[in-house]
């Protein structure tokens, strides 16, 4: 038995006159949490639809929990998948509890499991009101609850935290962490970068239907090779000139301050060089590592040509 | 539990919640009562029983109303859920597409059958309680109930076909009106014009009875108005339908039930969301 929950090999999806996916290779191991980043229209939702068997691929090979998802035999496969669509909508007149009971029946799970999920996402109090009165955050929580029915082996979450306030977002990720702990594989698409940084095992960045990068956060930084900025506060023009004399690229240079751009590999050498200067000459030294936003911009920006 | 049952239950609950069931049942009951008590007034004292008269007037009403109700109920059955986004979530569950359509059909069929049988049935009971009822009348009324349910089901299937063919709910609404006009109103007019023009003489004229059967609404009319001797004599339709076997009207309705549903499934099965 393979250890991969999802395998995509050269997957292409063409719509009439439009390529949604142009050859995507991606493997997600069991129990892994992978973030899928990308601008709108990068192909994130198309990818999820393919994994759910809602859309067929134009070319390439797809395996979800070792099965091809878009065949008639894949109906049973979907019993093991939980899905939260972007902007989840429920039939307006039903109450949250009724909706969750219905979904539980569709997955062959007892009603009690639906009730306990309502509690888990903090909706137990509002469960008997019609969903049309729900706030965005409540709908999103109901959406998560339905995705969790039957403890799925694979969770596909399409921009799940949009519209959630920070507290709810924390709770949301706490639940996901629990699920991952139980061995669930999680694929989560988002364009909120900072909240994903610390929570996911790997980050895949999509750009115009292609996978621009897929790595751990550290790996992405290395791959991007974005320069580290070092800002040096000095005591005067004299020192500033000496600082600027080094092999580094000088970004700004004034009598009081010099900013350098350094390749990540040369960072230590530069700091060593600066620290050898007399103490009082250098007043302060700040190191700015590139933010995830910068990394994302590098790989995933629409105007990026590095792909 | 079987997903078909769950989906059917979902449709029935939705119909109950948005008062569709109550409204349709009430509408049919009121119209049937009005027709039953007032509609027979111009006919004066006739030989036929009160129920028989009701069958004639009711079938003339429901031939327009039931297709309209059925189309209203179902024109957005698939395209509406596609637009709302609820379809994608539903199909992400272990539900196959034929199960979804079958479940929806069972739910909608139950709603419409309930409205028809209860609505017309209540009126029938009231009419029977106040007037003369013959054996024939009861049989004709029962046949009316059954064929009315069948007519409604046919147009549920037609509604599904509409809702799987278009990409927007508003387009589906427009198409539903057009289909209703074509099948229920214009088709008859065209046939009548043909009959008048040809005098029923040449090949085209003689084909009219067969052409009547090709339309579900006309098949329904033939079934009710020429099926029973007493009704036929009272409705004056005996001549047109006389040589057409009652069975063919049923075959036509059955065909109109199966073909649109089958087409819906064939299209929906390949549909990419």
From TrEMBL, chain A:
A Pfam cross-reference name: ABC_tran
Keywords from the named record: ATP-binding, Nucleotide-binding, Transport
Organism superkingdom: Bacteria
SUPFAM superfamilies: P-loop containing nucleoside triphosphate hydrolases (SSF52540)
GO molecular function: ATP binding; ATP hydrolysis activity
InterPro entries: AAA+_ATPase, ABC_transporter-like_ATP-bd, ABC_transporter-like_CS, ABC_Transporter_VariousFunc, P-loop_NTPase
Record-annotated ABC transporter domain positions: 6-233
Protein name from the UniProt record: Copper ABC transporter protein
Organism: Salinisphaera shabanensis E1L3A
Automatic annotation (TrEMBL), chain B:
Superkingdom to which the source organism belongs: Bacteria
A single Gene Ontology CC term: plasma membrane
Keyword Zinc: no
GO terms assigned for molecular function: ABC-type transporter activity
UniProt entry keywords in alphabetical sequence: Membrane, Transmembrane, Transmembrane helix
Transmembrane segments: 20-38, 50-73, 105-129, 141-166, 173-193, 245-268
Pfam families: ABC2_membrane_2
Entry protein name: Nitrous oxide metabolic protein
